[in-house]
Amino acid sequence: MTYTMMKGRMPNMDDMTPLQRHRNMQHIRSSNTKPEIMLRKALWHIGIRYRKNYSKLPGKPDIALTKQKIAIFIDGDFWHARGHQDHPGEQVNSNKEYWQKKLSRNVEHDKEVNDELTELGWVVLRFWESDIKKDLSAIIQKIKQFIA
Length: 148
Description:
The chain is α+β, with helices and mostly antiparallel strands and about 150 residues long.
């Protein structure tokens, strides 16, 4: 099969056309994800008040408990390379070089943000989206421990 027969797609790169991939990526949320909303509702229900997507702090935490100086991030399993921190990008099969670079930078950025917030006197808590979906009550208990 020649390049012209493939209608602009690179060989062995992707099953979608560039337009299909673009539309797919546009629909991926960076805030107000289901796990974020689940956690926020649970915190609100037990009387814990917070700021969401707090832009006054480095990294713009998903949830900031300003009185207690606790920054909470809900990390997507794919975007923050869960289980692949040592080798980000291993979880993808196409365009590996691009994804390895992108996901490695995400992991580095997370560490930089953690360091900045810690230097400012904030406690940083990071939770995986799948853990929130699996056992929300355990996550709430961990947050309560840091509040007390």
